[in-house]
């Protein structure tokens, strides 16, 4: 019998894929950091409305944050064991000591270092987030505009904050509505506790 070699097609050329598989395949081709981009999309979907729009604010408990701040804070723990994060904490403490602003009390000192560290991580996180969002916008997975104090606007500034809208394959991350089970046609179901008068 004749034997032919089995060739594997690239992921995008293979047969039918699920929605999530298509999204992951697309991210692998359009993003420089596909795992990070997927986490960004997942977090946006978590706080998005039914039409896929998230922002400009996210409410958690009694606190309200801008969408970008909330995304940066949510992604921050992913780098908790990164050696650069540990080195940054030591540098923050050294900077506060040099500035003479580190309290003598150990608990207050630790709290101040943690707050300063969080602020610096959020600032650098916004740069990473902006880069990832720009790639997602270019790929047609996200739309970005700015809303806030005055009117909706395409550009930031004037007390306006980012709003992100999931598009295309990224919408598979939105929670699906559970439709009630359909009743089989036939006899009408008896209504409990209902008296029928003839």
Structure, described:
By secondary structure, this protein is of the alpha+beta class. The protein has one domain (18-173). The protein is 43% helix and 12% strand.
- Return the structural class: alpha+beta
Query: N-to-C terminal Cα separation, in Å?
Result: 80 Å
Strand order of the largest sheet: 1-5-4
**Extended strand count:** 5
Average pLDDT over all residues: 80
Helical content band: 40-55%
Low-confidence stretches: 3-15
Number of helices: 5
Radius of gyration, whole Å: 25 Å
What's the number of domains?
Answer: 1
Largest sheet: 3 strands, antiparallel
Percentage of β-strand residues = 5-15%
Global morphology: elongated
User: What series of H and E elements makes up the topology?
Assistant: HHEEEHHHEE
Protein topology:
Elements (H helix, E strand, L loop, with lengths): L18 H12 L3 H14 L5 E2 L2 E4 L2 E4 H9 L7 H17 L6 H33 L3 E7 L11 E7 L32
Helix pairs in contact: 1-2, 3-5, 4-5
Write a concise synopsis of the structure shown.
The protein is of the alpha+beta class. Helix content is 43%, strand content 12%.
Any key phrases for this structure?
two-stranded antiparallel ribbon; alpha+beta; 198 residues; 5 helices
């Amino acid at each position: 019998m004749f034997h032919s070699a089995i060739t594997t097609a690239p992921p995008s050329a293979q047969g039918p894929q699920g929605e999530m598989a298509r999204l992951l395949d697309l991210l692998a081709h359009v993003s420089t950091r596909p795992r990070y981009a997927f986490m960004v999309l997942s977090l946006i979907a978590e706080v998005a409305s039914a039409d896929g729009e998230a922002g400009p604010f996210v409410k958690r408990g009694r606190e309200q944050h801008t969408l970008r701040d909330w995304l940066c804070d949510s992604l921050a723990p992913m780098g908790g064991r990164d050696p650069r994060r540990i080195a940054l904490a030591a540098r923050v403490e050294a900077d506060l000591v040099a500035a003479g602003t580190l309290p003598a009390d150990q608990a207050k000192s630790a709290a101040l270092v943690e707050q300063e560290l969080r602020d610096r991580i959020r600032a650098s996180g916004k740069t990473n987030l902006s880069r990832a969002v720009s790639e997602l916008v270019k790929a047609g997975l996200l739309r970005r505009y700015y809303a806030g104090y005055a009117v909706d606007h395409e550009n930031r500034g004037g007390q306006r904050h980012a709003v992100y809208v999931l598009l295309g394959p990224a919408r598979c991350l939105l929670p699906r509505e559970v439709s009630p089970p359909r009743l089989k046609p036939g006899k009408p179901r008896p209504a409990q506790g209902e008296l029928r008068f003839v």
